[in-house]
Amino acid sequence: MHKGWKALHIACGQIRYPRLAEVRAGEVCCSACNGSVRVSDLEAEEFMRSAHFKPLEPYPGSQVPWLCQCLRCGSTVKPRFTTVRMGDGCLACSKVTAVATRRANFSLQAEAEMRAVGLEPLEPCPGTLARWKSRHLACGRVVFPVHHLAKYGRGVCRQCSGSPLVEPHEAVARLTVLGFKSLEPYPGKLQAQWRMQCITCGTVVTKALQGAGGCRRCRPFGTNHALPALVYLLHHPRWGAVKVGINNMGTTRLADHRRDGWLVIRTQYIELGADAYDVEQKVLHRLRNEMGIPPFLDASHMRYGGTAETADADLITPLQLWSLVCQAWDEIDSEAACATSGGRLGNGYACSSSLSEGVRSWFSARSRA
Questions:
Q1: Could you give the strand order of the β-sheet that contains 134-136, starting from the edge strand earlier in sequence?
Q2: Which of 53, 92, 107, 243 has a CA-to-CA distance to 169 between 20 and 30 Å?
């Protein structure tokens, strides 16, 4: 154990006589490799170049850090001649290699975890929190789950889970079908506001994709927002309901409602259907969100649609509802209204007293009854 044992040192190819105790202790028993044998400066420099190091200063000794440049990565490092003889390399290269190895191992593990939940990756792993283009093997759909959630079975495929998620390319396709083009990237949610432009008329709007229809100004159905329109107030005595709505000039909308027993209490001409639409939406917002008055009638009562614009006449009278219409119109275009009618609506009735005395008396009698 304590006697020299003739052996060949594989690292340098020299015959040495190490002791078994030294070998068990992990000591480098080769005097040439452990630096105990002095090598010439020329030999040291040649060896460093063979190990991909370019010395930048004279050889300082086997145990002293030696300023060199790595010929692989170009980094300036200070390895010891002894450690290089033992097989150590550039510290900067080793860090890069270690990072690359960790990334490769993570990518392999992540792909295995994605396949375990039924997903086939279609691109290299972008990271644990980034959306990863994959194919759901159960339905064949291309999805973009997040690896951090998908590996636990969450957010694998919203289409299969019952809560479908619209991907960016699908959202753009929907927008094209509606006649719009996108002016900014898809915000990621159907409920988020998205800036878009009508392909036909060039109108720029900002609205959510969920529930979005065609352009209000040029769509061939519903109220045309580029043409004059009426804001009207209806009352149904038998059902005890009131309704606010809009329609373009020359349509049969009001005649259809009259056939169902509605009384036209008040109408107001507005030059642009877009302004009429804004008036209607402001009134409905105040009814539903500020006053807490829900829709009153259902589809069985409204053959021609418009259930969302109805309200219980016991909760809000026609006079009060028309006051909301006047207030909304004043907020949208008060300056134009004052300039054209001296503080009154277009037909000469002031907003605060838009119902005639006869109509007021009729409603007063109805309320007392």
A1: 119-121, 134-136, 142-143
A2: 107
Give the global pTM.
0.41
Q: Which helix (H) or strand (E) holds 268?
A: strand 263-270
Secondary structure (H, E, C), 114-180:
HHHCCEEECCCCCCCCCECCEEECCCCCEECCEHHHHCCCCCCCHHHHCCCCCCHHHHHHHHHHCCE
Say whether pLDDT at 346 is over 50.
no
Task: Enter the tokens of residue 323.
Answer: 């006051």
For residues 28 and 23, what is the distance between their CA atoms, to the nearest angstrom? 7
Measured in degrees and rounded to the nearest 5, phi and psi for residue 240 equal 65, 45
Using a pLDDT cut of 70, give the percent of the chain over it: 80
* pLDDT above 80 for 348: no
- The residue with tokens 């490799």 is 33
At CA 166, angle to CA 163 and CA 167, rounded to 5? 135
CA distance linking residue 70 with residue 196, whole number of Å:
55
Q: Are 231 and 323 in contact (CB under 8 A)?
A: no
